[in-house]
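Hi all, posting the design record for the shared folder.

TITLE: backbone redesign
STEP: 1 of 1
STRUCTURE INPUT:
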């Protein structure tokens, strides 16, 4: 536990130094020293939940190398004890670390990420509005998709669903404006399911829809701002409306996959760093391999997120891919080391 704690503090210190140099160029241009300090502190929960598997891997590797250097692994083997005597305490610590990571990711980072995005968008990037580009709005059982055409004019798609999430109507408008709690639509095509004809379409030149939801009242929620329950229900709503759920599904499965990865990292550390001798070459190779695989684990996770967001691979598969790959590699190397 102490090795993992020291590793976490070291990684956070390195991050703070790098991030300070990166954000210092914005000082005096909307970013104040107080805001920069707040930004660095609010980023800590995100870093903890993001890097906890890597922290556990490095901490466990350092601990196992110390055991090997002091010939304690030889004593365990000579006493006729199995490797489980070394793994169980490490797995217990990994379980505590994964639980802590889940709690931080579930109840802390959704709050801190909202404030981080405000500082990033308003004070650093100096964006006038967070809602730029395609925007999704929700009004009861209606979903509005707005694509900006020109100032205050949008191309609009409206999806209406029933109380059980079933699709009832789709409205496509070539042009839409909002004023006085009303949407004014032009060049409208209305599509409704029909038991006899499959789908019935109706065209209208203009149409008015009453709604309290306008282009500035809401924006597409970000997965990093939502906890597990919110993600689950939002994904269900999107699926019932026939919409893509890529980034939300990835975030939901990531909340489960990341804590499990902490347990698998212990097995990988044992496969790399558990030696019966004190040869420095083997120990050096083990810690270098652990650091390299930890960095690779993080890179594969980020690559999976990008691929899932672009719908190039299934989002659930992308979330579990790093854990499956590195967990399988750790189990294979450990079983091979034990002669199985």
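Okay, here is what came back for every position:
SEQUENCE:
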């Amino acid at each position: 536990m102490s090795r993992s704690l020291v590793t976490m503090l070291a990684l956070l210190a390195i991050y703070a130094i790098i991030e300070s140099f990166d954000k210092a160029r914005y000082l005096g241009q909307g970013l104040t020293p107080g805001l920069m300090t707040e930004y660095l502190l609010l980023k800590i929960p995100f870093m903890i939940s993001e890097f906890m598997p890597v922290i556990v891997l490095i901490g466990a590797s350092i601990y196992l190398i110390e055991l090997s250097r002091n010939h304690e692994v030889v004593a365990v083997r000579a006493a006729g004890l199995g490797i489980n005597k070394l793994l169980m305490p490490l797995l217990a610590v990994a379980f505590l670390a994964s639980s802590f990571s889940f709690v931080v990711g579930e109840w802390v980072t959704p709050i801190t990420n909202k404030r981080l995005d405000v500082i990033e968008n308003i004070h650093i990037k100096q964006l006038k509005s967070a809602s730029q580009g395609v925007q999704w709005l929700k009004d009861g059982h209606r979903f509005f998709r707005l694509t900006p055409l020109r100032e205050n004019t949008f191309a609009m798609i409206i999806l209406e669903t029933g109380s059980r999430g079933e699709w009832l109507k789709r409205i496509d408008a070539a042009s839409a404006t909002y004023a006085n709690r009303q949407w004014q639509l032009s060049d409208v095509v209305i599509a409704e399911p029909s038991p006899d004809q499959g789908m019935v379409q109706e065209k209208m030149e203009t149409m008015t829809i009453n709604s309290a939801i306008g282009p500035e009242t809401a924006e597409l929620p970000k997965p990093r701002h939502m906890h597990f329950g919110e993600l689950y229900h939002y994904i269900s709503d999107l699926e019932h409306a026939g919409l893509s759920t890529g980034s939300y599904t990835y975030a939901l499965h990531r909340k489960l996959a990341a804590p499990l990865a902490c347990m698998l990292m212990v097995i990988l550390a044992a496969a790399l760093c558990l030696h019966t001798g004190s040869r420095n070459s083997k120990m050096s190779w083990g810690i270098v391999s652990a650091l390299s695989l930890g960095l690779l684990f993080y890179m594969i996770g980020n690559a999976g997120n990008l691929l899932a967001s672009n719908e190039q691979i299934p989002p659930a598969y992308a979330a579990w891919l790093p854990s499956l790959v590195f967990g399988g590699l750790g189990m294979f190397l450990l079983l091979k080391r034990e002669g199985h």
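COMMENT: DSSP finds eight helices and six strands in the chain.
Let me know if anyone wants the other runs.
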